[in-house]
C-alpha cells in the first residue's frame, strides 16, 4: 500500500451542486459522488472527502488550496485531487497518476473546457499562496499552471483529456463520447435532455426578444450557460 499518497475528493454535496448547476439533477450528483468514492476506495490509497462543510476560505482557490494543504498536513507527500463531475473518471487514472508522480512533480488530467479533472502534486512543489491565486474555474487554468511550472522548472505529465459536467453542452459531449460510462449515469443524463432542451429554447427566445428591443445595445453579450 502507498502510504505517502492520498486522494482528495474536493466535491460539493448533491444539494449544493444543483444550486450552481440547475440544468443537472440532485440524483445525478448523488450517483457521481458515490461513484467517485468507490473509485478512490478501489485504488487502495487513503482518501478524504471535502464537501462544502469541510472547505475553508472565501474564493474557490482559497478553499481548494486550503484543502490540499490540510491533506499534506496529515503527513502525506503527494496529493491527488479529483472532483465529482467527471463520469469517465476511473481508478486507472488514479493509479497512473501515482506511477507518474515517481518521475514528475505534477500530473494533470486536462478537461475539455481548459481546466482539469485531476491534479496530482508533490508537497515539495506546492505553495498554497501561489496556487490559490491561479485563475481557477476559467479556461486559462491549464495554461497558467504550465507557465508557472515552466518558470520553476517543474515537470508535468498529462493524462488523457476527459469531459467534466459544468454546462449543458458537456452533457452531450459525455453522451456522444466513445468512452464507457455507467448505465445509471447514462440513463440520468438521457432523461435530462428534454429538460436541457427546454432551457436552451427558452434562453434562445429570451435573447432574441432582448435583441429586438435593444438592437442598438453594443455592450457585452448575455452570459448563456449552454
How would you concisely characterize the structure shown here?
This protein has helices at residues 14-20, 26-43, 60-72, 91-100, 128-132, 141-151, 168-176, 183-213, and strands at 5-10, 46-50, 78-82, 106-110, 116-122, 156-158. It has 226 residues and is of the alpha/beta class. The protein has 2 domains: 5-158, Spore Coat Polysaccharide Biosynthesis Protein SpsA, Chain A (Alpha-Beta Complex), CATH 3.90.550.10; 168-213.
Describe, in plain words, how this protein is organized in 3D.
This protein has helices spanning 14-20, 26-43, 60-72, 91-100, 128-132, 141-151, 168-176, 183-213, and strands at residues 5-10, 46-50, 78-82, 106-110, 116-122, 156-158. The protein is of the alpha/beta class and 226 residues long. The chain folds into two domains: 5-158, Alpha-Beta Complex (Spore Coat Polysaccharide Biosynthesis Protein SpsA, Chain A); 168-213. Strands 2-1-3-5-4-6 form a six-stranded mixed beta sheet, with helices on both faces. Residues 198-208 and 210-226 have low confidence and may be disordered.
Amino acid at each position: 500500500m502507498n502510504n505517502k499518497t492520498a486522494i482528495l475528493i474536493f466535491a460539493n454535496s448533491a444539494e449544493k451542486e444543483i444550486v450552481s448547476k440547475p440544468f443537472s439533477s440532485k440524483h445525478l450528483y448523488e450517483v457521481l459522488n458515490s461513484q467517485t468514492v468507490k473509485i478512490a476506495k478501489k485504488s487502495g490509497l487513503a482518501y478524504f472527502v471535502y464537501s462544502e462543510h469541510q472547505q475553508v476560505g472565501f474564493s474557490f482557490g482559497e478553499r481548494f488550496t486550503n484543502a490540499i494543504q490540510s491533506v499534506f498536513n496529515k503527513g502525506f507527500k503527494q496529493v491527488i485531487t479529483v472532483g465529482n463531475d467527471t463520469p469517465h473518471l476511473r481508478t486507472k487514472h488514479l493509479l497512473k497518476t501515482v506511477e507518474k508522480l515517481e518521475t514528475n512533480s505534477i500530473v494533470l488530467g486536462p478537461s475539455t473546457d481548459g481546466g482539469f479533472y485531476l491534479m496530482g502534486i508533490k508537497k515539495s512543489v506546492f505553495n498554497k499562496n501561489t496556487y490559490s491565486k491561479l485563475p481557477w474555474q476559467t479556461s486559462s487554468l491549464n495554461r497558467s499552471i504550465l507557465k508557472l511550472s515552466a518558470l520553476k522548472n517543474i515537470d508535468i505529465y498529462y493524462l488523457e483529456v476527459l469531459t467534466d459536467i459544468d454546462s449543458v453542452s458537456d452533457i452531450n459531449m459525455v453522451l456522444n463520447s466513445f468512452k464507457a460510462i455507467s448505465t445509471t449515469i447514462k440513463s440520468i443524463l438521457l432523461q435530462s435532455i428534454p429538460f436541457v432542451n427546454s432551457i436552451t429554447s427558452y434562453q434562445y427566445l429570451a435573447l432574441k426578444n432582448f435583441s429586438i428591443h435593444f438592437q442598438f445595445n453594443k455592450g457585452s453579450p448575455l452570459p448563456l450557460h449552454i
